[in-house]
Specification:
By secondary structure, the chain is α/β, with parallel strands linked by helices. Helix content is 50%, strand content 11%. It starts with a strand and ends in a 12-residue tail after the last helix.
Length: 416
């Protein structure tokens, strides 16, 4: 048996990621598998469910984890660090005295408890003294019902988290209502277009991305661009000295870095750098998702023995959220990119190997295991390998995210 695991970001009112919900699956149930309570945490997480630690997959932020009846009754959460974990009580648990006692014990040990898919049914009232966060499915509960109860929960010092927030309009609606946390992919979709043309500064970055997508490559031209921009040169040196990229040599000069990296790696760096600059006013999670998708599509391309220069799988993943980063329609963005036609077709959703690689990455993000199984068979790639590649991509994305954002503080558990 191998792990079904995905993660979905939880953002605050400023659209900063403060936690991740870790979606563990046993392939059948929509919650943490019903395991024996005497299994050690290290064995469960390391061997049965994750090849990564919680800190890696959650970027050292708080992890929200679903628990169902048996795992709560057997106090399974107590095997995990209360400073890093929020215990999600799923909506299927019975509202019995036995369950209330179990939740009280968990709460007394220092854990924060979240009530998942709260439907405002009075039967949950007896749990409220132990609840810190209420998660509301915005697609299942009407706005008026939610609005009537917000003041009551705020007075009880219970945080409200809006789930399945898919548009910026929904985010603004629940943000203004008093919700503090948000889960959904609204941040990964473009807002209403307010301008037809990209600013000149961003068009220049698009040109830089052109260099990375060309089959012919000029080291001299790239060197000249970087020499005129101290910030870009500094970021190049940070990137190449990152242990996830280079474990053997310390790079001290710009030309040394260019020679060491080689054409393909330099093309990837240029693309990452341009993307980071393009999205400097957007949620960091957009860039992070792009990085993970890029690395995963590249690793999957290698696993299937594709030979591309530029690395098409990497670029497809990296550019897949350009519409959200630029607040433009994807078709308009793609038309401005002088890139390979196969990459353009994949970004526009036309079927092909690159589009399939991107679909696998999206299946992991949404925990769509049925789609993952189907794509695994179509691509003739073992599903265990896909899970391993995605985990590698998360670790790589974490490292690069830290490297290209020197102002970004070292990741610490979020206060929720």
């Amino acid at each position: 048996m191998f792990a079904y695991v995905a993660r979905q970001p939880i953002l605050d009112k400023d659209q900063n990621v403060c936690a991740y919900e870790l979606l563990f699956r046993d392939g059948k149930e929509n919650c943490f598998p019903n395991i024996q309570p005497d299994e050690a945490t290290s064995k469960i997480l390391a061997n049965n469910h994750l090849t990564l630690g919680l800190e890696d997959i959650a970027c050292h932020k708080t992890s929200f984890i679903n628990f169902h009846k048996d795992t709560l009754l057997n106090e399974f959460p107590s095997m995990l660090d209360p400073e890093h974990v929020v215990v999600e009580i799923v909506e299927t648990i019975p509202t019995t005295e036995e369950m209330i006692t179990a939740c009280k014990k968990i709460k007394d040990k220092g854990y924060k408890l979240a009530l998942d898919d709260y439907n405002f049914n009075p039967r949950w009232d007896i749990f409220m003294p132990y609840i810190d966060i209420i998660k509301v499915d915005t697609h299942l509960t009407d706005y008026q019902t939610v609005a009537r109860h917000v003041d009551k929960f705020q007075k009880a010092n219970i945080q409200l988290l809006a789930e399945k927030v898919e548009t910026h309009e929904e985010f603004n609606l629940y943000n203004n209502m008093g919700f503090e946390l948000f889960q959904g992919f609204f941040f990964a979709r473009p807002e209403v277009i307010k301008q037809k043309n990209l600013p000149t500064s961003k068009l220049a970055l698009i040109e830089l991305m052109k260099e990375s997508a060309n089959t012919t490559f000029s080291f001299e031209r790239v060197n000249a661009i970087l020499e005129r921009d101290v910030g870009l040169a500094y970021m190049l040196l940070r990137f190449i000295n990152n242990p996830t990229v280079n474990k053997r040599y310390e790079i001290t000069s710009l030309r040394h870095a260019l020679n060491y990296m080689g054409e393909i790696e330099l093309k990837k760096f240029i693309s990452i750098l341009a993307l980071a600059k393009l999205g400097d006013d957007k949620p960091m999670e957009l860039l992070h998702m792009s990085l993970v998708r890029a690395k995963f599509c590249e690793l999957l391309s290698h696993a299937r023995k594709d030979v591309d220069n530029p690395p098409k799988g990497f670029l497809v993943g990296l550019f897949s959220l350009l519409d959200a980063l630029l607040s433009q329609n994807l078709s308009d963005v793609v038309s401005k990119l002088p890139i390979d036609s196969e990459i353009k077709q994949a970004l526009m959703g036309e079927r092909g190997r690159l589009a399939d690689y991107l679909s696998v990455a999206k299946a992991f993000e949404s925990a769509n295991w049925l789609n993952l199984i189907r794509l695994s068979k179509e691509l003739n790639v073992d599903q265990k390998l896909l899970h391993g590649l995605f985990n590698q991509s998360i670790v790589w994305g974490n490292g690069v995210r830290q490297t290209i954002s020197p102002h970004y503080p070292k990741a610490q558990p979020a206060v929720i």
